[in-house]
Amino acid sequence: MNEEEFIEYCLSYPGVYKDYPFDETWTVMRHTGNKKSFALIFQRHGHLCVNLKCDPIKADFLRTLYPEVQPGYHMNKEHWNTVTLDGEIPREEIEDMVQHSYQLTQPKIRKKKSAE
Fold first, then answer.
1. Residue 104: which of 64, 72, 58, 60 has the closest Cα?
2. What predicted TM-score, i.e. pTM, was given to this entire model?
3. Among 79, 94, 98, 101, which residue's Cα sits nearest to residue 10?
4. Quick one: which of 7, 70, 102, 107 has the most CB atoms within 10 Å?
5. Tell me, what's the pLDDT at 115?
6. Helix axes 3-11, 91-105, angle to 10 degrees
């Protein structure tokens, strides 16, 4: 999956936009509702990488399963993974990781208070 394909995949989710808060070398995919990031795309050592939020137990599992999944670069190592996109991870698995990150960071639905 190349960078353009990855960005297009992220933009297919509802309420998502891309941002460049640091510089043009980091593309950040955010929720419009809360402005939280769920994917940070960058080049590192000649490889296309993305930081994705992940449940800590699942993060550990993915790190043992795929050498392309490492603790988050410049992120909380417990809750974020850095995934090398040009490695051997199947596209479906990468898409699952993106969906998981999207769900973990999406705006919370507020319950309406009932009138007493």
1. 58
2. 0.90
3. 98
4. 102
5. 57
6. 40
